[in-house]
Design a protein that fits this description.
single chain, 147 residues, alpha+beta, two-stranded antiparallel ribbon, two-stranded antiparallel sheet, 38% helix, globular
Amino acid sequence: MSQIFNENGIEVISNKDWLQKDEEAPKFGEQPIDVAYTIMTLSKFYDVFKDEEYRRKMVIAFNWFLGNNRLHQIIYNPCTGGCYDGLEESNVNLNEGAESTVSYLMARMTIEKYTNSDIPAKAQLRNHIRVRHQQGKPIYSTDLKNG
């Protein structure tokens, strides 16, 4: 986690190279699958250890899909319900592959687990994710000031 969470939120390790010990993580080429797996892992950590830091990082990671990323660009496409293929150096990869869309859906299903319950931590998370409906589809936005 120390390699991917920073002042920009989350910047997953690039798909362009391997992370070598004692080196800085490669930049650019961030993919939705890595963010989704991070969210799913943090969910398991939170469920076991009940450490609020894991819940907080889950929200930060999910917000990557909604534009709280290095390029400040939305990765989830609310018009199609799909997900773009990731962040390159200076642009979003506008392909909407099945892997990216499934990754977004796995991340969303994981985080929704914490928005549909009455326990206090889940109620706090619900305050960060706002849902509105457009043409029958849920559209998520976040309160980044409190996130």
